[in-house]
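Suppose you are handed only these lines of text.
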Amino acid sequence: MRYAETGFNLEIDLSSGNIEREATDSKLTELHLGGLGTNAKILWDRVPPEIEPFSPENLLIFGAGLLAGTPAPGANRTIISTISPQTKLMAYSMMGGFFAPELKYAGYDKIIFRGKSPTLVYVYINNDKVEIRDARYLAGKGAIETAELIKQELKEPNAQVAAIGLAGENRVFTASIEQGRSSSSRLGVGAVMGDKKLKAVVVRGTKDINLARPAEFLELSKGVLDYIKVRADNPVPGVMTILQGLGSPQEMLHVDEKWHTENFSWGNARTRRKDFWNPEIETKWKTVQEHARTRLVSCYNCPMKCGAIISLPGMSTYMMKCFSKLTYTMAAFVDDLDFGFRIAQRATEYGVDGFSTPQIMAFAFELREAGILTEQDFAGCPTDNEGKFYWLLDRIVRREGIGDILADGVYWAARKIGKGAEAFDHNTIKKHEQLPLKLGMLNPVYFLMYATGEKINITQIEGQFPQAPFPTMEERENFIKDWIQVPDEKFKQYLLGWEVRGDHSNPYYPTVDMSVDIVDWQEKMHYIDDALGVCAGLSSFPLKPPYHVHNYPKFISSGAGIEMDETKLAQIYKRNRNLIRAINVRRGLRRVDEKPPEDHWRKRFPELEDQLLDAYYRFKGWDKQGIPTKKTLQDLELAGVGDDLEQRGVIKNE
Amino acid sequence: MKKVKTIKIDVDKCNGCRACEVICSAFHSNPRYSSNNPARSRIRMVRDPLRDVYLPVYAGEYTAAECMGRDKYVLDGKEYSECDFCRASCPSRGFFKEPDSGLPLKCDMCEDEPTGKPLCVQWCLNNALTYEEREEEVEEDEKPGDAETGLEALVNKYGLEKIKDTVERFGHKQDIKT
Ligand code: SF4
Ligand code: SF4
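From them, the structure of the protein bound to iron/sulfur cluster can be written out as follows.
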């Protein structure tokens, strides 16, 4: 018997309509765990670099994490892997919510889609019954509306639905896959789903998930809940409100947005409004938010409340999380939060990434101001900031006129438009839009995370190490007292030595080697979370989380019955990290691509930055280009990967 | 006097996480906690996020036939079906039945749990479920045991004759083995 996982994947060929239930090899679970790890293994084996994102041979994988659906709190992630139309690299995207556990209860760990359906379809999985059904009546329908219509059609109110909206159907590069309160937004996974003419995936499951050593596993899970309670009563002192607690950023709960509105940039990641937040705005925004939010909600089996149901007169209800209430508002220079809640409703139905899309629009309006895009491109566009954004969102999602070019994202649009538009593409890494954050002094840890992260998105690599030094020694000592999560005592020393000013401050402290260590720890946590399907909000993302390197091996041993310790787990992390790196270097990723936006910090240190990258690559066992060496791959039981990279000339004869 | 166990349900505090379903089904699995499956849970979330309906309901008595009428309630502007509040393991819906055998499920207040506190309450960190014990005067009447309720459900489903036949056949099989 298989524990924690089901031991079966669904293989669905949308071209032929063929559906297979395939037993999986338990050895792969031992090597990669599940979720992201085994997704990457499948992509490596089956999607060679010649395959274009919109080729029928590209795969779209919905993978439930290894622990998803077990009683481990917050283990609910679906990891969606494919080749991204935007970056042409592996798309590393995921969603919380209720989908992954339901898939496990239906008896599957993953759904692997290949091919392209001739007409718009949806897939309905009800335990052993799997059907491809006609979705033509859903063409053009909103993502949430689609979910509701399908549940009605099937008379299955308890089914979980992951659907695309019009943006996905039109292969907009920032198209998301929406699932109730969650979405898999980054890197255009919705566009690939649309290309496959797959409108929705619907799951209902009523089978058991088994545990290897139940009593022990339950004890550990209870321990996580107890620690969540402890953390709720003990917010971390000395850091900003949103960093004090657990969960993903508590944007639906908190109304104080002084920090985001004054420190993040407005428009096309340009303008800091340092005195934006005042009592009048505060009162207004508070009223708007409390009025809009009917209930705070969570994902499956999690006591947190990171999402909210948003209901405003004159529009249909939807759910929101994270800080998308601000992304449109700030990109459009609108001072009324009501706009943020309203445009996000339309954007959610369309199914677009709430981080990238507003930036594309702000970029376009900058180009118009600069005379690079013309009035003709904007014929019919209203003049007010709110109206402008609604108008352009519609054009992009429909791929009409200038919207067709912008629908490929800032990087590609800038190259298509030309005439100097490239200079306005100042906030992308590896062709992907970044948070609109512009700072003063280079932070070496963040430099590395921005540059090298395979998710190409800072919020999905940062986490447990404070973002800034504590001003006093007393605060530092206080912080490290109950810092049980550190993998090694040395991290406490790093923090103790970190000063706001002087020799021991950014950019030269944390030192190069310390920075590499810190980044490796953060990364490790994210990779483990994403293989296990545990929410980053309870693990890699916040300070002092309930899951960490010390209790994870026990969860894996008692849950999945795979004997695990910290050393073995570190090895699995390295294996998965290197496999994803291998997929991407095989697709052309090199050192030149690994750099944060030029203006991310005002003060840059090219020499130091080079040293940081060199040291990071060395630490990982990669060459100067960031390519894993054959030896590194061999040591990780990935010798075949090394051979392939050598045959293709990616690894040069050493 | 009798100790009555009650759970107070504050729907306003519920975040819809379904932890109660997870832990209930895990507690009642055999061996204990060896598996979980919300479809076997004795507490179920009547849950419709877009209408802001979040209603934890506990499994009560088995019923052979569904009610005739279906009334509607409007509470706080939200419409509920009468069934949403109903605890019965009833042929009209999938709740409160074993998914494979169809046998009825019933909340037993986790009677063998050492702390005496039902597991759903322990796992509901949002305090939507709170546990109370009350002393109450009650007239004791014969309660059917689990086996009896289960059998009644089977009789209703397959008819008494068929069940009798099956039991008899079972008996024969046993004879052969021994
Ligand atoms: S911490 Fe928040 S985002 Fe994470 S599983 Fe819980 S509710 Fe979902
Ligand atoms: S555990 Fe509590 S908060 Fe979660 S669904 Fe059940 S009643 Fe609601």
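What can we learn from it? Chain A has three domains: 8-204, 246-433, 439-647. Residues 512-532 of chain A form the longest helix (21 residues).
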